[in-house]
Every structure is written in C-alpha cells, then in structure tokens.
Amino acid sequence: MKRSDMSHQAIGIMYGLLAYGAWGILPLYWKLISVVSPIEILAHRIFWSFVYVTILLLLAKNFKKLIVVVSNRKNLLLITLASLIIGFNWYTYIYGVNSNHVVEASMGYYISPLITVLMGIIVLKEKLIPLQILAILSAGIGVIFMSVQYGQVPWIALTLAFTFAVYGLLKKLIKVDSMIGLAVETIILMPIALGYIFYRQINGIGAIGSISLTATILLFLSGIATATPLLWFAKSAERIQLSTMGFLQYVSPTISLILGIIVFKEPFTITHLWGFGFIWAGLILFSISKTNIMEKIRLPLNKEVKRVP
Predict the structure, then answer these.
(1) DSSP readout, the chain?
(2) What is the tens place of the pLDDT at every residue in 220-278?
(3) FRET pair for 54, CA 20 to 30 Å: which of 67, 189, 239, 304?
(4) In the chain, what is the greatest distance between 2 CA atoms, to the nearest angstrom?
C-alpha cells in the first residue's frame, strides 16, 4: 500500500472515530437539557439542524444539487419517508436517554447492523452465509432472553434498531450526498418542528425563557451536535472500506453503554450480561463473516473440493 493511500485511510479512520465518538457521548448532551421534554428537544434539534445545514449549503454553494434531488419524485418520496423515520429514531433516543434507559438505547445500536442484514434479505433479496445466519440467531436469543427475564420487550432498543436499519436501507436506495440528504430531510420536518416550538412558546409552556441560559444555548446548538457527526461520517465513508466502517460503528454504543453504567449508574445485572453476551457474540460472528478471514478459509476448502474425483 502506498504511503499516500495509508495517509488517506488514516484520515478516514480519524473522521470515523470522531463521528462515532460524538454519537457515543450524545447522552451527556441530552442529559444536560433533560429539563426540556423529549418532543420539544426533537423539535429544536430539527429546526437548528435545518439552520446549520442551510448555512453550510450557502457556503458550499450546493443549492443546485438540492434542486436536482427534490425535482425527482421518487427521491423526494423516499427522503420524506426517511425523514419521518429518522425523526422518530431521534425522539426515541432522546426519550431513552432522559428516562434513564441509556444501556437499553446502546443495545439498539448494537443490534442495528444485524437488523440491516435482515432488511437486505427481505427487501434486496440478498443471500446470507451460515455464519451470518448464526450471528442473527445469537443476537435474537439475547433479546428474547432479556425479554423473558424482565417480563417486557426492550422496545426502546428494538425501535432504535429497526428505525435506524430502515433509514439506512432508504438512504442506500436514494443514493444522495449525505449533506444534501440531511438538508432535504430537515426542510421536510422543519415546518412541523417550528410550528410546535411556536405553539409551546405562545402558550407559555415553551423552553425558551423558562430554562437556564446554559440549557437554552445547548438547545440552540443541538443542530450542530446533530449535523457535524454526520459530516464527519460522510468524510470517513469516502476514505475507508465498508468493512473498516463496520468495526468503527461499535464505538458509539460501547461509549454509551459505559456512560450508562458508570456515569448514569444504570443497573447492569447478570441478565444484562447474558443478553448482551449473546448480542456481542452475534456481532463478532457477523464481523468475522464480513472480513477476508472467511474468504481465506473458503479458498482452501474450495481447492480441496475440486480434488475430489
């Protein structure tokens, strides 16, 4: 590998770590403004993301690309659906964090890659190798185990996993630049978000003016906290292989899990350990199946098969 290629990949890994690291510590951010209801935080997050992305588009002079994307009816329909799904994902995550379910929320993002695989089978008719089937079964056992032990389904984790997987699938079908996609998504959701903010403010129940100055500033900066990691993610995806990105994506839920246990003092029992253990085992199997290790194993086996008369 050339030195320039290695430098290119190193920068990509750095951007990936920044993106997933930022997503991992977001629970700290939402906790700082937990005095605001999750739905109002979501509304501000959408509106200020719209403002931030609009400024970036103006600076980059990318409005022509935006017009091309929205003029395509199929793209517009898929992006509208994607915006609604990611909006629900954001709300669920904020609700999970501010209702002391950070550990469960982290589980959702551990499961998400495996749900994405299932989506690929169902929608894109992709085929799985036995190791990937075993990975999905292992994660499924982990979720079922925890559901039976606690007498309730971990709906926050499953909602986050399914919505993020569906969102990823839609983004794959749309194939639009991440910045343009985020811009269209926020444009679609912005009128609803702004209307809700105005409704609460007019009725005297809005956050602005009733919370501390620090919390207000953090609320206004939620757009930057949302869009910046997405930009880092896009820069990373341009420079490194998908398999490398696949390993990096576990940085985020791992940080969140550690925060949930150590910082927020959420319980992590033997049941959690067994449940997460099955999920982690599934992720290890899945990660192995996506690397060159399996290819190296299959190659000698294929040669042996050819020798058989």
Answers:
(1) --HHHHHHHHHHHHHHHHHHHHHHHHHHHHHHTTTS-HHHHHHHHHHHHHHHHHHHHHHHT-HHHHHHHHT-HHHHHHHHHHHHHHHHHHHHHHHHHHTT-HHHHHHHHHHHHHHHHHHHHHTT-----HHHHHHHHHHHHHHHHHHHHHTS--HHHHHHHHHHHHHHHHHHHH---HHHHHHHHHHHHHHHHHHHHHHHHHTT--STTTS-HHHHHHHHTHHHHHHHHHHHHHHHHHHS-HHHHHHHTTHHHHHHHHIIIIIS-----HHHHHHHHHHHHHHHHHHHHTSHHHHHHHHHHHHHHHH--
(2) 999 999 889 888 887 887 777 655 666 788 889 999 999 999 999 999 999 999 999 99
(3) 239
(4) 83
pTM metric for this prediction: 0.84
The pLDDT of residue 29: 95
**Angle ∠(240,242,245) on CA atoms, nearest 5:** 75
- pLDDT above 80 for 44: yes
Burial class (CB in 10 A: 0-12, 13-18, 19+), 28: middle
Q: Is the pLDDT of residue 297 over 50?
A: no
Transcribe 57-114 into DSSP letters. HHHHT-HHHHHHHHT-HHHHHHHHHHHHHHHHHHHHHHHHHHTT-HHHHHHHHHHHHH
pLDDT per residue over 263-276, tens digit each?
A: 999 999 999 999 99
Answer yes or no: are the C-beta atoms of 62 and 176 closer than 8 Å. no
CB-side neighbour CA atoms (13 Å) of 60: 14
Distance in angstroms (rounded) separating the CA atoms of residues 177 and 39: 28
Structure tokens at 298: 């299959």
Structure tokens at 207: 């956050």
